[in-house]
Design goal:
GO molecular function, one term: 1,4-alpha-oligoglucan phosphorylase activity
Subunit structure: Homodimer.
Protein name: Pyrimidine-nucleoside phosphorylase
CATH class of the largest domain: Alpha Beta
Radius of gyration: 22 Å
Strand order of the largest sheet: 1-4-5-13-14
Helix content: 40-55%
Oligomer: single chain
Largest sheet: 5 strands, mixed
Number of helices: 16
Enzyme class: transferase
Strand content: 15-25%
Order of helices and strands: HHHHEHEHHEHHEHEEHHHHEEHEEEHEEE
CATH superfamily of the largest domain: Nucleoside phosphorylase/phosphoribosyltransferase catalytic domain
CATH architecture of the largest domain: 3-Layer(aba) Sandwich
Distance between the termini: 51 Å
Shape: globular
EC number: 2.4.2.2
Length: 442
Amino acid sequence: MRMYDIIEQKRNGGVLTDDQIDFFVNGYVAGSIPDYQASALLMAIFYEGMNAGETARLTMDMARSGDMVDLSAIRGVKVDKHSTGGVGDKTTLVIAPLVASLGVPVAKMSGRGLGHTGGTLDKLESIPGLSVDVDMERFFRIVNEVGCAVIGQTGNLVPADKKLYALRDVTATVDSLPLIASSIMSKKIASGADAILLDVKCGSGAFMKTSEDAVALAQCMVDLGEEVGRTTVALITDMGRPLGRAIGNSLEVMEACDVLKGTASEDLTETCVELAANMLFLAGVGSLEKCRKTARTQISNGQGFQKLHEMVAAQGGDARVLDDYALFAQPACSREVRSVDGGWVFAMDTGRCGIASVALGAGRATKEDAIDPAAGIVLAAKTGARIAPGDLMATLYANSEERLDEAERILRGVYDIRDEQPEPVPHFFARVSREGVGRFGA
């Protein structure tokens, strides 16, 4: 079998066989297929696409290219949640303890932030002492004893995706539905969960800009999960504005705590409740409506917050910070950003909000960049707000005035302020499952 023939077949619009896909994935991971031939095939896939069978085979080959995690040592139905990435998305910090407080185990492997999107591991590591580098034996023990744990991925989980994503990133082939779907689902399948909930973002701060594109990606991923025996559901959620008001690592941990204490903004709370309800539903707790009510009860009775305390302590963190935010690392300087114009916040460039947070030190432009856990943004005005000249728009936190200068310059380009009031934008657009696409509010 020759790589040349595989490239030519896909370039000409052909369907690759299982053996051809196996040959490509195994050979590229082993190093026998050079980058230039892999790049050529990725570009051919970018233009010609892949059918459902090809995408499923690619996904499973990638999942099996390294360690396949066996979660059978953990009692109960294991439900995993994956977000396609956004700005201010701290939902894992809320829903993992919320779901675990109801007896559903959450054994989650998360990633770090890159570019304008934040990473759950970076947020957790802003808690003094907390470790996300946990071996599997201890990981299983924490989940069985506490009910939840969030750790970094093992070193050999889906090496095919690591290599292929790095190549896609420099060859302009990231934006391909089968390649996106196989990248996400190979990691979820290799992570060993019984059921998978996908949070597919759409809007100015997400990879998929429209709800229609997000639904198409969700359908592909749901089909992949169901194809390999994992019950899979996707929610299409809004990222046309940051989620909640905090952007930055310790700031987002504080806001997640506020959700579990019942004092956070309703948009973030509603999103967390809906995600938690779907995880509980996938675990067989009850109807979606019952699960929504149950999740809200765990907020009002404080049991979700107590479970977060237990998880943080079990992973070596100083759980006192969850009650006393002054114990977090503190920023060296801060600045209020106030409005020059009056009117309505008609829209926001959410991606630029994320870029501003990176400029402050809260995120990474490259994988080697260090994170400042105290840096970030707290938004006072979001889409739909009525503002007057001089009103507070946001507060910036950083370790230098130079970082504040750069972030303020970026942030002032985020807001589209007009005389007209915008139409309300829903937090949820659709729910995608094997039964089809259900539209929220329809």
